[in-house]
Amino acid sequence: MAASPALFYLIPGLGADERVFQFLRLEGEAHVLRWLPPQSLSEPLLHYAARLATAVPEDLACWLVGVSFGGILALEVAQLRPLARVVLISSFVGPGELPWVAGLARVTGVHRLLPPQLLPRLPRVAQWFFGVKKGSEYRLLQQILRDTDPAFTRWAIGQLVQWRGRPMASVTRIHGTADRLLPAGAAHSQYLLPGGHLIIVSQAAEISSILNQLAAETAPGQVA
């Protein structure tokens, strides 16, 4: 009997959407989990993850591929879908991997004072943090920042700085060697690729190859 094609569920980063996955070439069936509007600014992350998980079948082995903040949701959704395996791209598994400023925000709540519209107004600053080159990558980043929902951003940042983490031994991690937003992630990743935080775009061909290889070598639901 022929093996079933790989099933991927892709979760974009904070404020991003399916555009960050447009250059992937996956051998199988791929679905982007679109962000849902938070029910309120106080909606717990676990409750949000449960709503997001309704798009992922309980009885099918699959891959949850989360980028940046989407990695947090991939880890939480995986708690509800035991047949899923997780791949983190430019992401993290706990607060110990966040920059010191996140710890400061957790203690002081200073992030609540910053307008979520600030970063879209400073595209060159965002370009530096994301490690994005000029040209098509920069234009894509500008579009994503412009289209980001401020209410969702405020909710997500609040959840991010308070998240206690979800270490999982079987997680596969892919990270950029020059990631300025989450530099600590490189030390914990099995696959290191040249580039910054937006390697899902700049290294799409290599990431596609890694994901296709993982799917071919290890069936989801099995522990590698």
TrEMBL record:
The keyword Hydrolase applies. The keyword Oxidoreductase does not apply. Residues 10-207 form the AB hydrolase-1 domain. It comes from the Bacteria. Keywords: Hydrolase. InterPro entries: AB_hydrolase_1, AB_hydrolase_fold. This is Alpha/beta hydrolase family protein.
